[in-house]
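JOB MANIFEST
job_type = single_chain_structure
chain_count = 1
residues = 140
[input]
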Amino acid sequence: MWTWFGLAVLALIGELVTGTFYLLLIAVGLAAGGAAAWFAGSAEWQLAVFGVVALAGLVVLRKTGVLKKREIDAQRNADVNLDIGQQVEVTAWKADGTAQVMYRGAAWQTDLAQGETPQPGIYVIAAVRGNRLVLARKRD
């Protein structure tokens, strides 16, 4: 019985170090196995309780989306790229929907965001693709 609880504590310590939910599920399953041992369950029942509880926790966390991998689109995320949302002035657009603007003391090649019309004026940086800025019209 104490072996189950000792392993559960080790799994919790591992969870705190790694920050994943998987070791937390293992720890809960191990604690459930320890509870089965407390109630004098056989070794087979203890293992079965451990497996069922750990797998049930995995299913619940998958269904709720807690374990879903969150993709970050760095090209468009202002938390990742501080250029997103900054303003630039476009004096003229080329026929192919590109322009050259001065930003942070350098000349940048820009693309027009999809659905935008090429007109001179103030634009905001909507995305950064490689070394090109993608601009969208500034909305007031």
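[summary]
The radius of gyration is 27 Å.
Residues 87-137 form a domain with the OB fold (Dihydrolipoamide Acetyltransferase, E2P) fold (CATH 2.40.50.140).
exit_status = 0
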